[in-house]
Amino acid sequence: MAKGNGDKAKLSKKDYDEQVAQLRADLVQLQVELQNAPFKVVLIPAGVDAAGRGDAINTLMGWLDPRGVETIAVSDPSDEERERPFMWRFWRDLPTRGRVGIFVGSWYTETLREEARSKKALADLDHELRRIRHFERLLAENGTLVIKVWFHLTKAQQGKRLKELLANEDTAWRVTEEQQRGHRIYDRLARTAEHILGETDRPGAHWDRIDASDARFRNLSFGLTLLRRFREHTSQLAKSPEKAPNKPKRIVALRPDGRERLLALPLDHKLSSKQYEEKREKWLGRLNKAIRRAKQAKRSVVFVFEGQDAAGKGGAIRRLTSAIDARDYRVIPVAKPTAEEKAHHYLWRFWQHIPRDGFTAIFDRSWYGRVLVERIEGFCHPHEWKRAFGEINDFEEQLVHHGSIVVKFWLQVSKEEQLLRFESRQNTPYKQHKINDEDWRNRAQWAAYETAVGDMLALTDTAYAPWNLVPANNKRYARFDVLRTACKQITAALDG
């Protein structure tokens, strides 16, 4: 942990009052500017026990307009939060664009608390820090201003502060047994804290360290840090404003082997009505058993359905759900993002729907829209969809690391078969709602989609979340293949 700043950490009341008057006006102006800015502010105060972090937060809140601030209190995870990946609750509570979100406790809190209770293996700690770095990088790359502040006290200063609090019956309640134990193992915690700060001090998510030995200096420095970081961020944006993305003239493959794999898929598999009926009941029963096993083992199942328009995703999903208790699953149809969803990172809306342990979520289209339709239509910049491959892999790895079973399907039809289905939809009254101008526009970009799908298959086909390619020219075969593959993959994950 950083050493104290000596005399610099002392501030007279007169100097403090004079500087606070100007700071308060500047902070309110910051909030006015932020309302029209294309980003949000995430403020993460952390530090040594008894450093007065809570007092600093309360003081800052008194200087800000409360209508533009959200405080997110983080305590021990609830049962609902434990039954989802670690980062789920933080994704859920991110502030909206144009606001300041102050995390009273954060994704660092549990890591530091666990270290205070038991000496964490360095490998486990580094895994958590890698996860935190990735999360903060996602926020920063999406334009979020991430401000992290570490309040520092030396061991002697901390001991003095705890002793003063304990000596007064009105403040003794503030000192917990955990804090007293933390003081006894201060040196060990200091080494761990230095490791954490060093490993997570990265571009876009730097740590600012504040000497907390003097309350006035601490509080003023806290507010000034917020102001300074905001001005630096807006200045940088002004120097290099980001232009709206343009629709690309041509889609160029990143990995030609992915498209080759797609084109090599045999689409002539067929299944007669009789064969389908015979096989369906068998595999529905097996899938029902596999899903019930997953629930008993408290393993969630996440299905991802992607495919060309009219490839039969909806029909396959309906057959799949007939094997699952209606109380245990949700189908999440993914359409164009809402205004609220656009104000967040594109993965935000999918984190909202991650199921609890033992339950099933079925995504009818998914986060892969970023590397498919958004890439092809120019809804995002090239640097955004290119980095999305790694972001998606990490997202799915977090799900699997938590215990979720991720089953991904791409349903493939030929161009000729798609045309027949489009025409059938147009000519059948009860199917006409399934076809619109956008479907025909997508069809005109068949080659572009083949290229984008090929890149997706090549760059997101991982050992923990592999792609299952389904020949879908014959609907019965596709539905049977989905049932059989889902059953086998879930069973293998449970047995493994």
TrEMBL record:
<feature type="domain" description="Polyphosphate kinase-2-related">
    <location>
        <begin position="271"/>
        <end position="492"/>
    </location>
</feature>
<dbReference type="Pfam" id="PF03976">
    <property type="entry name" value="PPK2"/>
</dbReference>
<dbReference type="InterPro" id="IPR022489">
    <property type="entry name" value="PolyP_AMP_Tfrase"/>
</dbReference>
<feature type="domain" description="Polyphosphate kinase-2-related">
    <location>
        <begin position="10"/>
        <end position="231"/>
    </location>
</feature>
<protein>
    <submittedName>
        <fullName>Polyphosphate:AMP phosphotransferase</fullName>
    </submittedName>
</protein>
<dbReference type="InterPro" id="IPR022488">
    <property type="entry name" value="PPK2-related"/>
</dbReference>
<dbReference type="InterPro" id="IPR027417">
    <property type="entry name" value="P-loop_NTPase"/>
</dbReference>
